[in-house]
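Key result, reporting period 2: structure in, sequence out.
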């Protein structure tokens, strides 16, 4: 490998390191320079495909950022040669999108943006990677074809939509974990926003000019959809820029563009003259201290790089100066266009006034004959008409003076513009010629306007406005008659509405009467049930209190058991399970006191497990050398026993089951977790070590049992669904259950392949050591397998519970099955990744495991599709049922649906509060760790 190739490998490897830090710009620059040196990007892709894009999420994130920068600033051939890798880019996003965490969703969205950029440049080869292009080049490319403008505008909008989606997911990820922009973790997520701003700014400018171009040649109603979409994008881009601007991290890196308060009005060409394109400026980066990128780099190469940077900087300054000059030129042209538009407006107004005077004059001639006959009756109004005539003359004079002042102001502005253009005569020769022609036209228009104004003034002295006043009176009378007719129609409509409302009110009163009767019957039944319940509770209360009181005394006794730390861990898991079971049995007992036997049995089993745990902890305290940790374990064990006293009080006094649930979820579980962590840390530091092999095998065994049980439960649900449903519901249930069953089969195969690969890894890696020693030396790897196994088991249970709720309730939209399926897919991905860490790359079992993982992903997609299609079919079926109901039944169903909506809104609010509390707790735990 030559020196340049070796440098490129090192740069890409360092750029895509898996640490949670932002992409180093110097490494990205080295890759960009390499594309210009070699005039290709194939060598870059050959190195990228060997990076761990599928193993580390931050490697995938930096890969998207680096590829985006290379496509923007690298050699133009990069865009064309990267098209063959679209499938790989999307596969990276799809893999990490399954994790449903902050960075995973960001990676998935960013990969879609990168692929969209490749496709955009493929369709519109005229655009460079930086998207910086003069609009006259776009006009030449389109050849004034409105169809091309229309399609290009849609593609630019799509591009901006992808940018908005990426930035919104970045901010959501930062806000969820409350990251600062000045920490490496925050900057890792926020750094790509600079490139997104560089892309969105020219795209926004192009979209504005395209919209003005389209509105200049097409009817406004044809472009309603374009205007609505642009206004939505405008508000989102402005919100994006306003969110970035206050962040301290960007203050020294980029000058964020500023957008106006309101979107441009494309229906007025005046806004085109007032439009100023926003500018973005990326500040020169400070040179970072060298990191010995390659040991054999020479000072000559460094000097070449510095010289290139200086040349690039000088060219950027020249480009900025030229851009400022072009902006000044555009402003001058826009002002001239605005003056032309205003002159045309004045011409139109004067023409309108002239036509009115002509009409008035002709009307005056027609009324002269009739005026002789009605002269006597009009003499009383002559003075008033004369007065109004004088007022009209004064108003016309004032209007004329305003026009003259306005024209004078415009003449002054034209003079100023002319002097400004004269100063730049050498630079803008063509512009000056065009400007002189426009000035001559303006002077001709002014002379014409002055002549027409003089004619109008003379006409005002001769015109009699008496007939105009009469016509106005007649018009007002006609308007009054129309208003009276409209009011009569309104009164008639309101009368009909009142009649309909009276009918509906009568129907509601009948329904309320029926509901009151049913409510009285229900209250009587409830009173009867309460009396029966009180009788039963009085009979069992004394027996229950005595039994529970005696059973809790067993806590003071210690029983002999297997005195090992592993046994203590088993007891902790058993206690956690029994606490959950205790809550379930107590709920059953609260509903039916005859279920007390299950409650007492659970209490006795719980006490036995707690006694065994205490015995193991006492043995650990007397056996280990680390007395500090031993004392902590013993103290927490005693605290755990004390935390069970409120449970005793709840059970003895028959309190609300929700109180018991809150107590179990708070202190006891937290104490058990602390004891578990202390025992694990103590055993890991002991000479014997933790029997990870035993734990892993037990966890895998438990996972197999749970998945087998879940599969059988799904089959049982399927059988119940056949007996209780028919028609469309049965068809929907069959499709969903078939997809869930296929997912379970795929998971079984994946677990089997994972186990075979695990055995191969242990056989190859343990050497002369026993298997237990291998797991001890690779505890982190074993822990990853254990964690993945637990997550898969939890996902399988959640899937069964979700399916059961879906088929036993009347809900037609239940997305819990989708969430459960995606969670299982994410957990299996974790299991695959944990297995790949230690596996040989050429292992056939690894290939089989990878194929099984793809099958699980495909099965997950089938579950999602089946649920969504089923929801649509059930919604359509419910709509057909509603069409067959009577008006009374429709009203009853409406009230039932309204009650359901209120219940769902309340449930949604409660779940959002729980989610907020959960995130706060996770954030606090993350800080503590």
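The corresponding designed sequence is given below.
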């Amino acid at each position: 490998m030559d020196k340049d190739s070796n440098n490129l490998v090192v740069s890409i490897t360092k750029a895509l390191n898996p640490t949670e830090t932002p992409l180093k710009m110097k490494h990205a620059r080295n890759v960009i320079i390499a594309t210009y040196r070699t005039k290709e990007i194939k060598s870059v892709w050959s190195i990228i495909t060997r990076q761990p894009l599928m193993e580390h999420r931050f490697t995938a994130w930096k890969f998207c950022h680096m590829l985006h920068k290379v496509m923007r600033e690298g050699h133009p051939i990069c865009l064309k040669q990267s098209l063959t890798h679209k499938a790989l880019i999307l596969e990276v996003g799809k893999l990490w999108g399954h994790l449903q965490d902050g960075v995973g969703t960001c990676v998935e969205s960013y990969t879609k943006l990168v692929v969209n950029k490749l496709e955009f440049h493929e369709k519109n080869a005229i655009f460079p990677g930086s998207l910086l292009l003069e609009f006259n080049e776009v006009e030449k490319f389109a050849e004034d074809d409105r169809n091309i403008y229309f399609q290009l505008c849609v593609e630019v909008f799509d591009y901006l939509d992808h940018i908005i989606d990426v930035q919104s997911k970045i901010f959501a990820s930062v806000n969820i974990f409350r990251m600062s922009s000045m920490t490496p973790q925050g900057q890792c997520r926020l750094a790509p926003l600079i490139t997104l701003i560089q892309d969105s700014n020219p795209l926004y400018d192009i979209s504005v000019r395209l919209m003005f171009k389209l509105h200049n040649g097409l009817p406004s109603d044809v472009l309603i959809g374009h205007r609505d979409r642009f206004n939505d994008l405008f508000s989102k881009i402005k919100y994006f820029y306003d969110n970035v601007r206050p962040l301290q991290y960007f203050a020294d890196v980029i000058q964020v563009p500023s957008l106006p308060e309101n979107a441009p009005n494309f229906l007025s060409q005046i806004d085109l003259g007032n439009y100023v394109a926003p500018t973005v400026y990326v500040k020169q980066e400070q040179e970072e201290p060298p990191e010995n990128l390659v040991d054999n780099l020479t000072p000559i190469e460094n000097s070449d790089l510095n010289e290139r940077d200086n040349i690039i900087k000088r060219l950027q300054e020249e480009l900025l100066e030229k851009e400022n000059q072009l902006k000044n030129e555009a402003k001058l042209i826009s002002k001239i266009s605005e003056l032309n538009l205003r002159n045309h407006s004045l011409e139109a107004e004067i023409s309108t006034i002239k036509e009115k005077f002509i009409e008035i004059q002709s009307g005056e001639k027609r009324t002269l004959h009739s005026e002789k006959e009605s002269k006597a009756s009009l003499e009383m109004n002559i003075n008033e008409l004369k007065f109004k005539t004088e007022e009209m003359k004064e108003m016309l004079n004032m209007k004329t003076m305003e026009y003259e002042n306005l024209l004078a102001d415009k003449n002054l502005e034209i003079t100023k513009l002319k002097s400004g253009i004269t100063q730049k005569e050498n630079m803008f020769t063509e512009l000056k010629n065009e400007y002189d022609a426009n000035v001559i036209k303006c002077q001709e228009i002014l002379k014409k306007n002055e002549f027409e104004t003089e004619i109008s003034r003379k006409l005002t002295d001769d015109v009699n406005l008496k007939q105009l006043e009469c016509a106005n009176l007649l018009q007002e009378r006609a308007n009054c008659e129309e208003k009276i007719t409209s009011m009569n129609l309104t009164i008639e409509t309101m009368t009909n509405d009142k009649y309909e409302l009276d009918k509906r009110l009568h129907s509601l009163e009948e329904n309320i009467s029926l509901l009151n009767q049913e409510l009285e019957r229900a209250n009587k039944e409830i009173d009867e049930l309460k009396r029966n319940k009180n009788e039963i509770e009085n009979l069992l209360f004394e027996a229950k209190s005595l039994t529970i009181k005696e059973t809790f005394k067993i806590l003071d006794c210690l029983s002999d058991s297997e005195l090992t730390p592993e046994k203590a861990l088993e007891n902790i898991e058993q206690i956690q399970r029994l606490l959950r079971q205790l809550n379930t049995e107590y709920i059953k007992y609260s509903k039916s006191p005859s279920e007390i036997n299950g409650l007492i049995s659970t209490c006795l089993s719980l006490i036995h497990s707690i006694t065994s745990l205490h015995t193991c902890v006492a043995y650990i305290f007397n056996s280990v050398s680390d007395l500090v940790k031993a004392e902590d374990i013993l103290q927490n064990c005693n605290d755990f026993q004390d935390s069970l006293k409120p449970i005793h009080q709840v059970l003895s006094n028959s309190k609300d089951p929700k109180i018991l649930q809150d107590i179990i979820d708070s202190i006891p579980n937290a104490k058990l977790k602390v004891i578990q962590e202390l025992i694990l840390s103590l055993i890991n530091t002991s000479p014997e070590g933790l029997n990870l092999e035993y734990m892993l095998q037990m966890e895998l065994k438990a996972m197999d049992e749970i998945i087998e049980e879940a599969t059988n439960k799904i089959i049982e649900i399927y059988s119940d669904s056949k007996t209780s449903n028919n028609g469309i519901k049965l068809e929907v249930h069959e499709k969903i259950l078939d997809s869930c069953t296929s997912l379970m089969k795929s998971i079984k195969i994946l677990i089997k392949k994972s186990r075979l690969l695990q055995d191969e890894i242990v056989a190859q890696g343990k050497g002369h050591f026993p298997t237990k020693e291998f797991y001890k030396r690779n505890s982190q790897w074993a822990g990853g397998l254990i964690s993945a196994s637990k997550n898969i088991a939890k996902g399988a249970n959640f899937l069964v519970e979700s399916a059961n709720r879906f088929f036993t309730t009347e809900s037609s939209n239940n997305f819990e099955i989708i969430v459960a399926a995606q969670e299982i897919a994410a957990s299996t991905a974790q299991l695959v990744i944990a297995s790949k860490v230690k596996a040989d790359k050429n292992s056939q079992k690894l290939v089989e495991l990878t194929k099984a993982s793809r099958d699980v992903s495909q099965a997950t997609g089938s579950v999602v599709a089946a649920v969504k299609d089923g929801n649509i079919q059930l919604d359509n079926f419910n709509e057909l049922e509603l069409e067959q109901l009577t008006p009374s039944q429709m009203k009853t169903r409406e009230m039932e649906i309204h009650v359901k909506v209120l219940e769902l809104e309340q449930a949604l609010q409660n779940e959002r509060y729980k989610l907020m509390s959960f995130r706060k707790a996770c954030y606090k735990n993350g800080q503590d760790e």
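The mean pLDDT is 76. DSSP finds 30 helices and two strands in the chain. This case is discussed further under Risks and Mitigation.
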